[in-house]
Each structure stands twice: as structure tokens, then as C-alpha cells.
Write a structure and sequence with these properties.
With 736 residues, the protein is mainly alpha-helical. The protein folds into four domains: 125 residues, Vinculin, Vh2 four-helix bundle (Four Helix Bundle (Hemerythrin (Met), subunit A), Up-down Bundle), CATH 1.20.120; 101 residues, Four Helix Bundle (Hemerythrin (Met), subunit A) (Up-down Bundle); 119 residues, Four Helix Bundle (Hemerythrin (Met), subunit A); 191 residues, Up-down Bundle (Four Helix Bundle (Hemerythrin (Met), subunit A)), CATH 1.20.120.230. The protein has a two-stranded parallel ribbon. It is globular, with a radius of gyration of 32 Å.
Length: 736
């Protein structure tokens, strides 16, 4: 039976790895606390700072109880304040005083308490399925929030409200770092959602009917504002990515120059401290923005999200090592080659990791929206340049025009990535053409900007710069237009209904109205009998379009099937094999839910349905592979294959678990007679409960995997080659 739960091993390993990493850093932090002579800037001190950052992240993700999360956050903030006080005492050579010793001991004890509380919270979610754990991405939180708003009675774990409060918290955190133009909309969205959430909870507390006008109105309004917040978050995060990742090398280059400059330079110590702090802040900002891009945008690729988070953690671990090497180099009066080589080695590692992180972030966000954000930023930089020209300020002119070129280089880099990613020859040819034209605008603009910085009062030079800069912006617009997705695969049947007559018949006048029958004719002839109603026999695909029964809180398997069916029922099963098969599987899971509860059927029915589900799992993976095979976008293809490849494994596990569950039927009669009646009942109930729990978790994972596969297939369908006589994949919205 243990072999049937391999699907959860990967998730459990990641949780164990997070706890293990936190434990290792905690060990280093305690060594720093116990050493009264240890000062700021060491690796152990940096580890303690990272422990506090990790605790904040894990508390946000894993503590469902809002009061408990706030209490733990307050403890983290208190530890941070005590640590700052301890550093002040050690800098003043008072690390051995009773106050410093008490602070060290108190910090160590509170860190242990926080670690145990976090470990307990993570273990509570260890063996649960995706339906029984809080989401970690904005997409997942929005899904859980919408699911709760549609069926608040079924959210027995409280994930829906927790997800909404997490979205509000993310929005307010982003307000403190994002561009000013996005702050007002974000704050307004957060306030509206918070007020609506309070009203909605009050209605639920008063036990008003869920389908009543008040609940429905507030639920729809709350759902609309949550979707709006999701869009605002993505826009702000993408703009932040375009701004922060514009330049990733300058601070570490400055740090190296200051570290190894001559010891006779004036203000050398102050310059080094400034360069070191700017590098630390820059590195922290980049990793924070990368995590926001992974968890807060429309990216649904779990591998990309995990890669970004892991790489960001590796950079956070590498940054204090770079600082430590810089301190050694700065304190070496001879500036030996060994010291420089050591720093350069760590610098190259940091730059390599940061470039890889930037590449992954670019893949996580939509290219057209990124180009649009860069275009808006370039227009803003252009306005700053015009203002600097009017003020005759050459330094602002240099800074603004330099930012324009940096952003233009980022756009060119993303454009090349899209060309390499696509296998559509028409698309790549067009994009290559406009990118070449875009690149040709760089040198004239740079030359004109240099002349403008030297002669800001020369109107002829100013006019020349305006011309070259406008050409660059126009070229960006051409790239953005090509990158914008064109959705042509999604069709609505009502669009094919013609409201016009044939042109030949419309040119003729209508025939005259026939005369009404007279009273004599009506009385002489009896009315003909009513013809029988046509017999309507629903097709197989229409049978599975029917809604599933509304699940109860104690029906988690039916809940998962119902959630998937609600997500895909908007599409017609006609001419879409994937949707038809997914709907059929939801109905089979609903039947399986009744069987394992003993409400209907026999063990033979249980085994038969699980066998058919396993076969359908194989077929739905085959369809996903066929779609991926014809997809011209490599990233979309990889994502579709990743989310669909585990479906057959889960389906096979479901068949095995169902067989185990079927063997539990009637096991009570075959237990040894030497056991008492209560002992036999206890054995039977424990084994049956374990088998049922594993089966439910497996079915939930299957429904979640199919949901992700359908979503990935729908996105990939916009990038398909013609598939004549292969598979039916027409995304048509139902009109009834």
C-alpha cells in the first residue's frame, strides 16, 4: 500500500528540505549568539537574518489561524529588535555584559519555540492533498477563494477566507515597494475586498441563505474585486520586474572597484560601507521581486516557480559569502592575487546565478505584458529627459537615457528568447524582422543622447534625439503587437447564427398574407389532432454535461469532482475530446464516492469503475501528449507534458487502492474468532478508514491534475499547428 502514495513523496521531501535548511541556518545562528565577540557581517549573523526572513515566509504560507500567524509574526519582529540591540552592545565591546548575555539566551529560546511551532504547522499539512492545503501562489489563492465564494458550506478547512486575507496581505506588501502609479489601485482593491469580506462573513454568521439576494450580490462583488486585485498585482509585479532587473551587475562591479582600490584613497572606509550596503539591498530586492514574479503572476508551471524560489534562496546564501570575501579583500593591505581571485570566483558565481534567475523570471511572466511595462517605463524616462533638458541638467539626462537603453536591451533579450522558444516559422520570421529593426535604432539614439548631455541647450541636437528616441519607441510598439496573443481557437456557437436573409430573397418583395378562414370553414372542419412530442435521446457527451449533485462537507471526493466539473462545464463537449473525457471522469469519481461510502453498488462495481478511470487516465494523457506534440511554443509544450505525465500513475494508484478498499468489504467475518466483537470491529474500522483516506486523497489529486491539464491544454491550443484528422479540440463555450 505504501507504493500507492508515491505522489506525495515529492511534496513531503520539499517540506522536509525546507525544515532541514531552516534547521541548519538556525544552528549557525545559535553559534553566533553564543559567541559574545561575534560582530555584524559574519556568515553566522547573516544566517540569523535569513532565519527570520524564512520564518516570515513559512508563517505566511502554513499558519491557517490568523491570530496565531499574527502572534508568531510579532515574535519574529521582537527577535529582530532584540538582535539589533545585541549588535549595538557588541559594537560597543559590551558583549559580555549581563544584558547582552540575557538577550542572546532569550533570542535562542524564542527561535526554538518558533521553529517548533512552524514544524508543527507544516506537519499538519504533510499528508493532505491539494484540496486540503493552503495555496502558495496567487493563482492558487484566487482559485480557493472563488471555490469558497461559490460554495461556502464546503470549505471545512477555512482555506477560502485564509486565501482572501493572504491576497490582501500580498497586495499591501507590494504597495510598499511598487511604482507609485500602481499603489492607489492596489490599496483601493484591498480595502474593498476587506470590507466585502467582513459583510460576507457577517451574512454567513447570521445563517442567511447562500442563494439569497444579499449573499449572491456580495459574493459576486467580492469575486469581481478579487479578480481585479489579481490583475493589478500582476501588472505591478511585471513593472517591478522590468525596473529591478534592468541592471543586475552595477552594484557588484562597484563593490569590487571599491574593495580593491588603493588604501590611500580618501573616504575609503565610507565608500566601502556604502557599496557593501547597496549590494546587499540590491541582491535582496532582486530575489524578493523574483519570488513575487513566481508566486504572484499568471505562471502555472510548478517547475518554473520552484526553480525561481530555489535559485533565489541560493543567491541569498551566496550574497553574505561575497560580502565576507569583500571584507577580506578590503582588509588586505597588499591586495594579493589570491584574495582577488577568491572574490572574483564568488562574484562570477553570483552573476551566473542572477542571470539564470532573470531568465527564469522572464519565462514566468507574459512577454507581451513585460514589453508593455518596459514601454511605459521608457516613456516615463523620456519625460524625465525632457524635463532635464528644460532644466539644463546633464546628469539627469545621462541617467534617464541610460535607463532607456538598459530597458531596450531587456526587451531585445526577451524578444530573442521568444524567437528561440517558438517553432512557428511565420511568427519567428516576423519577430526577427522587427527585432532587427529595433536593434538598429540603438546606436543613433545613444549617439544623440551623448550629444544632448554635452549640449542640452542646443535645439537642433534636442530635436535629433527626440527623432531617434521616437523611432525606438515605435519599434517597441511593433514588437509588442506581434507578441500579443491572438485567441482564435475559442469559438462561440452563437457567432455562427445569421440574422440576415439570403441576398436573392431579400431583393424581392414578401408574398401577400393569405386570407383568414371564414366561420363556415372553421365550423365545417374539425381541428387536426396534436402531433406527438419528439422523443429526445441524449447523446453520451450530453449525459455527462449534467451537473453533479451538490456535495456535502463529509464528501471530499465528490467535492473534488464537483469543483472540476464546475470549471469545465462552460465548454461544450462537442468536438473536444479532452473536455468530454474530463466531464465523464468527474461523473465516475462521483459514483466512486457513493461506492466507497457503501451507499450503493458492490465491490465488483468499485473495481470496475476504478479500472475504467485508470483507462481514461491513460487516454487523457495520450490526448495531452498529442496536443503538446503539435504545439509550437516550447514552454507551453513542456508545461502541458509536466502536468499530464503524472495522471496515469495516479490512475493506476487509484485502481490499486480501490481494489484494497474492495477487499475490506466483509473482512469482519474473516477475522479470528478468538478476538472479541469490539476488537474485530476496531481492526475493521481502522484499516477501512486508512484505505478510504488514501483513496480519497488519490481521487482528489487525480481531479486536480486533470484540472491543471485542461487549463494547460486550453492555453497551448492557441499555438497549435493544423491537426487535420487527428484529435477533436474545439473550445466552444456552451450557450445553455
Amino acid at each position: 500500500m505504501q507504493q500507492c502514495v508515491n505522489y506525495t513523496i515529492e511534496k513531503d521531501f520539499k517540506k522536509d528540505n525546507a525544515i532541514k535548511t531552516l534547521g541548519n541556518r538556525l544552528y549557525q545562528a545559535k553559534n553566533w549568539l553564543s559567541n559574545s565577540q561575534a560582530l555584524e557581517g559574519t556568515l553566522a549573523e547573516r544566517s540569523l537574518r535569513m532565519v527570520l526572513d524564512d520564518l516570515r515566509i513559512h508563517i505566511t504560507e502554513h499558519c491557517l489561524d490568523e491570530k496565531q500567524a499574527d502572534m508568531l509574526m510579532q515574535k519574529v519582529d521582537a527577535i529582530s529588535q532584540m538582535m539589533n540591540r545585541l549588535l549595538q552592545l557588541r559594537v560597543q565591546s559590551k558583549g559580555d555584559t549581563s544584558e547582552a548575555t540575557s538577550l542572546s539566551r532569550n533570542i535562542s529560546q524564542q527561535l526554538d519555540d518558533l521553529y517548533r511551532s512552524l514544524e508543527y504547522a507544516i506537519n499538519l499539512l504533510r499528508y493532505t492533498s491539494d484540496y486540503q492545503r493552503p495555496a502558495t501562489t496567487v493563482n492558487g489563492k484566487v482559485d480557493q477563494a472563488q471555490r469558497w465564494l461559490s460554495q461556502p458550506d464546503l470549505d471545512q478547512f477555512g482555506f477560502g477566507e485564509f486565501a482572501i486575507r493572504s491576497l490582501i496581505k500580498i497586495g499591501r506588501q507590494l504597495v510598499s515597494i511598487c511604482e507609485l502609479s500602481y499603489r492607489r489601485d492596489l490599496l483601493e482593491c484591498c480595502l474593498n475586498i476587506e470590507n466585502l469580506l467582513l459583510k460576507y462573513k457577517d451574512l454567513l454568521r447570521r445563517r442567511l441563505p447562500i442563494n439569497g439576494p444579499e449573499c449572491v450580490m456580495i459574493s459576486r462583488s467580492l469575486s469581481s474585486h478579487i479578480s481585479q486585485l489579481q490583475r493589478r498585482l500582476q501588472e505591478a509585479i511585471i513593472y517591478q520586474v522590468s525596473d529591478d532587473f534592468m541592471d543586475i551587475t552595477s552594484t557588484i562591479k562597484i563593490l569590487r572597484d571599491v574593495t580593491f582600490q588603493s588604501s590611500n584613497e580618501p573616504n575609503r572606509q565610507e565608500l566601502f560601507q556604502t557599496a557593501m550596503q547597496e549590494f546587499i539591498n540590491h541582491s535582496s530586492t532582486l530575489t524578493q521581486t523574483a519570488r513575487l514574479a513566481a508566486n504572484g503572476t499568471s505562471c502555472r508551471s510548478k517547475s518554473t516557480i520552484e526553480t525561481i524560489n530555489i535559485t533565489a534562496s541560493q543567491i541569498n546564501d551566496l550574497t553574505p559569502q561575497v560580502i565576507y570575501a569583500a571584507r577580506i579583500g578590503f582588509g588586505d593591505p597588499t591586495s594579493s592575487s589570491t584574495t582577488e581571485e577568491h572574490f572574483d570566483l564568488l562574484r562570477d558565481q553570483w552573476l551566473t546565478q542572477m542571470e539564470y534567475l532573470r531568465l527564469q523570471v522572464d519565462e514566468a511572466i507574459p512577454s507581451d505584458e513585460f514589453v508593455k511595462a518596459c514601454e511605459e517605463a521608457i516613456i516615463h524616462d523620456t519625460q524625465q529627459t525632457e524635463k532635464a533638458v528644460a532644466d539644463l541638467n546633464p546628469s539627469i539626462i545621462i541617467d534617464s537615457t541610460s535607463n532607456i537603453i538598459r530597458r531596450a536591451n531587456r526587451i531585445l533579450l526577451v524578444t530573442y528568447q521568444e524567437i528561440e522558444n517558438s517553432e512557428d516559422s511565420t511568427f519567428t520570421t516576423q519577430l526577427q524582422k522587427v527585432s532587427n529593426a529595433f536593434k538598429e535604432t540603438f546606436q543613433p539614439m545613444i549617439a544623440a543622447a551623448k550629444q544632448l548631455a554635452l549640449n542640452p541647450d542646443n535645439k537642433l541636437i534636442h530635436s535629433k534625439w527626440q527623432q531617434t528616441n521616437n523611432e525606438l519607441i515605435d519599434a517597441i510598439g511593433n514588437i509588442r503587437e506581434i507578441l500579443q496573443p491572438i485567441t482564435t481557437n475559442l469559438v462561440n456557437d452563437i457567432a455562427h447564427i445569421s440574422f440576415y436573409h439570403d441576398s436573392r430573397s431579400s431583393s424581392r418583395s414578401p408574398p401577400p398574407r393569405p386570407p383568414l378562414p371564414s366561420d363556415e370553414e372553421l365550423s365545417a372542419s374539425a381541428a387536426p389532432p396534436r402531433p406527438p412530442l419528439p422523443v429526445f435521446e441524449p447523446r453520451d457527451e450530453e449525459t455527462y454535461d449534467k451537473d453533479l449533485p451538490l456535495p456535502q462537507p463529509n464528501q471530499p471526493m465528490l467535492m473534488a469532482a464537483h469543483d472540476l466539473h464546475m470549471n469545465i462545464k462552460q465548454y461544450s463537449s462537442h468536438d473536444n475530446e479532452l473536455i468530454a473525457l474530463a466531464k465523464k471522469m468527474t461523473h465516475f469519481i462521483a459514483q466512486l464516492s457513493l461506492l466507497i461510502r457503501g451507499e450503493t453498488g458492490t465491490k465488483r462495481d468499485l473495481i470496475s469503475i476504478s479500472r475504467e478511470l485508470a483507462e481514461m487516465s491513460e487516454h487523457i494523457t495520450y490526448l495531452a501528449k498529442q496536443i503538446a506534440k503539435e504545439c509550437t511554443d516550447r514552454r507551453m509544450r513542456t508545461h502541458l507534458l509536466q502536468v499530464s505525465e503524472r495522471i496515469p500513475t495516479i490512475g493506476t494508484q487509484l485502481k490499486i487502492l480501490s481494489t484494497v478498499k474492495a477487499t475490506m468489504f466483509g473482512i469482519y467475518d474473516f477475522l479470528p474468532r478468538s478476538l472479541s466483537k469490539n476488537e474485530r470491529a476496531m481492526i475493521n474500522s481502522e484499516e477501512d478508514a486508512e484505505a478510504t483516506e488514501m483513496l480519497i486523497s488519490n481521487a482528489q489529486n487525480l481531479m486536480q491534475s486533470i484540472k491543471e491539464t485542461v487549463k494547460a491544454a486550453e492555453i497551448a491550443s492557441d499555438k497549435l499547428r493544423p491537426m487535420d484528422n487527428k484529435i477533436r479540440l474545439r473550445w466552444t463555450r456552451r450557450t445553455r
